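Record type: monomer structure entry
Structure origin: computed from sequence
Chain ID: A
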Amino acid sequence: MTDSISRLKLAYMVATPDIESREALGYHGDINYSTKLLRELGYDGIELTTADPDAFGWGAVQAAIEAAGLDVPLVCSGEVFGQSKLGLAAPDEHVRAAALVRLKRLVDFAAIFGSNVNIGRSRWYYTEGVPRSLTEQWAYEAFCEIADYAAEKSVCIALEPIAFHVCNFINSTQEGLEWVRRVGRPNFKLMLDVYHMNIDDRLSIESSIFQAVQADAVVHVHLCDTNRKPPGYGHMDFPSIFDALKRAGYTGYVSAEVFNYPDQDEAIVRCAEVFKQLL
């Protein structure tokens, strides 16, 4: 544990133009408007949620982000599964191959910003009729290949443990740490999400934060209330979470990933108001 307390940096998730459903997490709309809004509200960075980076022009997105002076700490791959139905450990070998190609393209996209790529739902899940050991072997091989590919571009792969009711494969921070050790690549680490940690972690959120940060395994953190809504609509203890992150020595980005509740404009403002005070 460190005695020095450093300011964290705050980002907000924004959907790239290829995201089809307005129900997908993230702020939706014109990228120029979104980036200007983030800057006006005092955000340091923008997290991009992307399903297919080849479905839109990178130049316009990059120009808008640079004009607003924002960092891009992470490219989120959730909609690779949610929208495109691809996964690294899917039983169908063609789906697995397509998922690997897609995630490599997310790495290419992330590399232009110097950002990282998370693997959450895009890893797939345990499937009835498929031995768990086989799902794990497919995942392991894909994790190693994508991490090695990303290392060449100075990109870190951030594995996201996800609560069982969303994905039945790699549910807790503790399981995530086991996979980080198993893959054994210096650029294969964890992204923590307090929503999932609150449900399935074996320790308190604060204890899990200390465990993962002190293992040098955390590259990004997602924030939301206990019901995935913006802060204030649930009972997440954000002051305690921020305190744990700082005291554990985490100095990276925290990013709001929330439902657009009651609408996306109120959500993005609410997150800025609450989280900026805790940085």
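Annotation 1: The first helix runs from residue 31 to 41.
Annotation 2: The chain has one domain: 9-276.
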